[in-house]
């Protein structure tokens, strides 16, 4: 067993002769492009059918909360699975597991198209969450496997930006699919996307891991213990989950606010989601570009700006009630959230380079569990159905972020 002096993580590596196709200079560029293409899968799987929520509620003869629960099923299974898949792919490799996961994901998507049972829908969403965990965690670890130094930091900082393309494009595209073909078309597109990526991965990609770790429970437990005992890493995951929760409470409420309160079409919901996702994307780019000040200073300043925006949104709601007013504040609040998310995501993902798979899994999986918890708690306390209640939801999450950042202000490594 080896201890990494820089990160403190424990490893138990073995070098193996990998018989499957590997990443070399000849296919590294194409494999990198494919890895980036799969990073948005988790967002695509949650966001593409958001404009279809009201139609799905009618089709399955159930209420809005039951359809919203399909998102929770995905988030919970995706989050829990990521806590464990990192150690699996660190021990058995990324490539073959990725190929199998793509096929299972495609199959579950097509199964959803033909079901009329809400419980089958829940089950398939759990399956999709688990398979997406294997795919996305493996692809995030790919960049740590293949690249080093500044190039590694550059690519990992791009991950949250590339991921943000799903919230930008998926609901927008899904709105048109819903209007033209119905809710089933969203899952047909998901299934076809997974099949196309399977073929491209089979042709152009390969195994990226060079050093596998023994799959010994005790060794794996020690790795998890070391990572989770680092306060900056663990509480950074909490901030990531809360930040993503800000996006999710809008995404899950927007179809009903737009289509019920403002009486607009699913296409309008798609446009709103497009603006929301674009703001996250821009925020991620800004977060990547900001270099001045310590990480703690940048995070606390961003959080303070977010609190001011939320306060203005709440107090002005009684004066202005319109979709343009709502979306102006949603865009600004989500943009700042994108900055916070990008800064902490890069920090957590590169914190333990010798345990890239486990760190990637815990980072994303833990954040999704936090997101699932806080969103379920918020929707359990009150119904977010208009501008005022959305502002209250934003405020609760922003104050939670403030508390964590104040605790971490002197504990971050840089």
Automatic annotation (TrEMBL):
Predominant location category: membrane
Transmembrane domains' residue ranges: 31-50, 66-85, 97-114, 120-137, 158-177, 183-204, 233-258, 264-287, 299-317, 323-344, 390-408
Topological type in the membrane: Multi-pass membrane protein
Annotated GO MF terms: sodium:proton antiporter activity
Pfam families assigned: MFS_1
Protein's organism: Pedobacter westerhofensis
Keyword annotations of the record: Membrane, Transmembrane, Transmembrane helix, Transport
Protein name (database record): Predicted arabinose efflux permease, MFS family
InterPro entries named among the record's database cross-references: MFS (IPR011701), MFS_dom (IPR020846), MFS_trans_sf (IPR036259)
Example of a GO biological process term: xenobiotic detoxification by transmembrane export across the plasma membrane
GO cellular component: plasma membrane
Annotated compartments: Membrane
Ranges where the Major facilitator superfamily (MFS) profile domain occurs: 31-414
């Amino acid at each position: 067993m080896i201890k990494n002096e820089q990160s403190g993580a424990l490893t138990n590596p073995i070098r193996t002769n990998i018989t499957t196709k590997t990443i070399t200079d000849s296919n590294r560029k194409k494999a990198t492009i494919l890895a980036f293409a799969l990073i948005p899968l988790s967002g695509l799987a949650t966001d593409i059918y958001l404009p279809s929520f009201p139609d799905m509620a009618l089709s399955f003869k159930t209420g809005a909360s039951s359809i919203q629960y399909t998102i929770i099923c995905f988030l919970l299974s995706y989050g829990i699975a990521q806590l464990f898949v990192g150690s699996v792919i660190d021990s058995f490799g990324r490539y073959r597991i990725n190929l199998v996961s793509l096929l299972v994901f495609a199959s579950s998507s097509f199964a959803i198209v033909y079901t009329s049972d809400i419980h089958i829908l829940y089950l398939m969403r759990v399956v999709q969450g688990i398979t997406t965990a294997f795919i996305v965690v493996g692809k995030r670890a790919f960049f740590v496997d293949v690249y080093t130094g500044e190039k590694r930091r550059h690519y990992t900082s791009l991950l949250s930006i590339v991921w943000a393309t799903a919230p930008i494009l998926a609901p927008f595209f899904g709105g048109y699919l819903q209007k033209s073909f119905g809710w089933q078309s969203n899952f047909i597109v998901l299934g076809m996307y997974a099949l196309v990526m399977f073929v491209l991965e089979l042709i152009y990609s390969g195994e990226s891991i060079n050093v596998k770790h023994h799959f010994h429970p005790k060794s794996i437990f020690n790795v998890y213990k070391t990572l989770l005992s680092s306060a900056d890493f663990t509480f950074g995951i909490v901030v990531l989950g809360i930040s993503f929760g800000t996006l999710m409470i809008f995404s899950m409420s927007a179809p009903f606010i737009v289509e019920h309160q403002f009486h607009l079409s699913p296409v309008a919901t798609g446009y709103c989601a497009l603006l929301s996702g674009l703001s996250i994307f821009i925020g991620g780019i800004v977060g990547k570009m900001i270099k001045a000040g310590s990480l703690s200073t940048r995070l606390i300043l961003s959080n303070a700006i977010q609190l001011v925006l939320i306060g203005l949104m709440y107090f002005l709601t009684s004066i202005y009630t319109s979709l343009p007013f709502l979306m102006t504040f949603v865009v600004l609040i989500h943009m700042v959230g994108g900055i916070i998310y990008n800064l902490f995501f890069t920090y957590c993902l590169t914190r333990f380079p010798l345990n890239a798979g486990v760190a990637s899994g815990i980072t994303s999986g833990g954040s999704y569990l936090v997101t699932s918890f806080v969103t379920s708690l918020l929707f359990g306390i009150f119904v977010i159905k208009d501008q005022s209640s959305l502002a209250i939801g934003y405020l609760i999450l922003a104050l939670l972020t403030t508390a964590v950042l104040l605790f971490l202000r002197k504990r971050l490594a840089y």
